[in-house]
Amino acid sequence: MPPPLPVLFAAGDAGPWQVERIAAVAGPGLAPAPRLAVLEGAAAAPPAGAAWTLRGTTSNTRYSMRAELDAMGARQEGLGRPAATRAALIPIRKSAAWWDLAQDERRTIFEEQSRHIGIGMDYLPGVARRLHHCRELGEPFDFLTWFEFAPADEAAFDSMLDRLRATPEWRFVEHEVEVRLSSG
User: Taking the CA atoms of the chain, what radius of gyration do you get in angstroms?
Assistant: First the structure.
């Protein structure tokens, strides 16, 4: 496992990603902004005048079994693929009821009941993703999920989101925002 990578998502007037839309799925949305920058590393600082920033860090996997990690690793392609000119940032905060559950209870809801990993696997390698944890950082969300995909895979990405949002796990989501982006 590589060391944790701090990542800063900064919405404002600068950045390689053009914001297509920001939609509140559950709870309040985020302020509008025309661009998004994804800045990696501990020294990353938000640009002046950012409409909003969200911080997260990559971390150890918390709900995946070894066989699942190996299967994902064999199928998922990396971020930054030239054809992946579409992206989505989805910040999520889960309820206190979720965090009151023990790790094994969360795992049961996450995969055995909801098939979160299994659903995501159905969309590999077209949809690449990286999860950032931020609950421990005092951020307004628990997770920031970054997705990249080619325009031809956008309908599949939408299908994946619909399937995930229809699972028992999503009963525990109290705040979710969907930020859709395109490069250029």
Answer: 16
- Mention the CATH class of domain 18-28+59-183: alpha beta
Report the alpha-carbon distance of residue 57 to residue 128 in Å, rounded.
Answer: 17
C-alpha dist (Å) from residue 136 to 97, 141, 182:
17, 10, 30
Q: How many CB atoms lie within 10 A of CB 74?
A: 9
CB count in 10 Å sphere of residue 54: 22
d(CA 181, CA 112): 32
Question: What is the tens place of the pLDDT at every residue in 77-110?
Answer: 889 999 999 999 999 999 999 999 999 999 899 9
For residue 114, give Cα distances in angstroms to 13, 67, 163: 38, 18, 9
Looking at the DSSP assignment, which residues form a beta bridge with residue 132? 144
Look up the pTM and report it: 0.92
83 forms bridges with which residues in the sheet? none
For 125-148, what is each residue's pLDDT tens digit?
Answer: 999 999 999 999 999 999 999 999
Give residue limits of the domains in the chain.
18-28+59-183
Q: What is the sign of the dihedral through the CA atoms of 135, 139, 145 and 148?
A: negative
